[in-house]
Amino acid sequence: MIALLLRDLRLATRAGGGFGLGLGFFLILCALIPFGTGPDTDVLASIAPGILWVGALLACLLSLDRIFALDFEDGSLDLIATSPIPLECAVIAKAAAHWLTSGLPLIVAAPLFGVLLQMPAAANGWLVLSLLIGTPALSLLGAFGAALTVGLRRGGLLLSLLVLPLYVPTLIFGAEATRRGAAGMDASTPLVFLAAITLLTVALIPFAAAAAIRINLR
Amino acid sequence: MSIWEYANPVKFMRLSGAILPWVAAGAAICTVAGLVWGVLTPPDYRQGASVKIMFLHVPAAMMAINIWLMMLVASLIWLIRRHHVSALAAKAAAPIGAVMTVIALVTGAAWGQPTWGTWWEWDPRLTSFLVLFLFYIGYIALWEAVEDPDSAADLTGILCLVGSVFALISRYAAMFWSQGIHQGSSLSVAPGERMSAVYRYPLYLTMLGFFLLFLTLVLIRTRTEIRLRRTAALQAREARQ
Fold this sequence. Notes:
- Chain A: Keywords: Cell inner membrane, Cell membrane, Cytochrome c-type biogenesis, Membrane, Transmembrane, Transmembrane helix, Transport.
- The structure holds two protein chains of two kinds.
- By secondary structure, chain A is an all-alpha fold.
- Chain A starts with a helix and ends with a helix.
- Chain B is mainly alpha-helical.
- In chain B, helix 2 packs parallel to helix 6.
- Chain B starts with 8 loop residues before the first helix and ends with a helix.
């Protein structure tokens, strides 16, 4: 499992493209929003938590189809499926690799982009904490979507159609926690719900994703 | 004599062909009579004539949710017992459910404009219906995208299971996220909360009508799917010879 995780990390960092791409997309999105809404500080400050969460979610979405598609094409997914470790564990390892390469950089960069969007400094801690709790769920749900569409030739658009509705609860609680943090309120309630959704995802999704991969490899 | 006998496509075709005209006639009578009766009800003392939208809105919303539940049950039967008719019924039901969701959303907007003063409000009920519609769209798109019919049935079945869990979570997350203006339960039978009999009976009739309408459409569509499957099998046999 560790070997698989390290292999995916090496592939993501050395092959280029995947690592910085999501981050660049996130930056461009945060830079484009003020052009759309106008540079008014109050407006930006009030929507910044939501924009940062939606931006992180979309940036996460960009690299999802890489989770299984390349391995499916060159046949390594068959080898992983027949290897001694259960496919469910392989799913967790691959989702963890996706989280480390796309989720973690976003979390580190988010407070920085928050400055661009005039987010109150008080919200930074809550933003990082909520992203830290919520993004693993995004990676796992994305792995499920990628597993469903791995056998399709043009699965990219379908993947986002399948995955985005599944992201709704995570987005609601994550953005709500950051918003409450920005307003100086106690944000622990939405954070607890966010953690509950992430734990539920960790418990259930590997089985669903592994079942989908088995069907696609049949 | 068990219900599983109808998992056999031949028996299913015979039974569904026999009951289809009756179900269709019942759907036509109940829906038309219920809607006409609904239009003839007196205007509400606060909402005026706009209350009559209820006779389309409530049955459509009810069916939109129940069709997803029916798809969930059909997917479970397919995943556990591998009955093809069950998978095809789930496939046949999805577009009907999506249309019912659209009817509920559009009639709701038309009702909300005069009573709430807005076409759309980010109310938990409205939001979760929009999310349900997105789930229907994803489900239908996955059926269309996968070529092998058995894989498509398996993958959409898994999507339906996971989607059900997350649609339910979205419903409660939306309640946490926003205060609603949509009223709570409309069909309560508790005395005092229950709606006047003038509106209640035509509403029950249209609800029955919409259920029979769904049954008619899903039977027709499932029969079409079975015939398509047979045609494909015949063509494959032809090509082999």
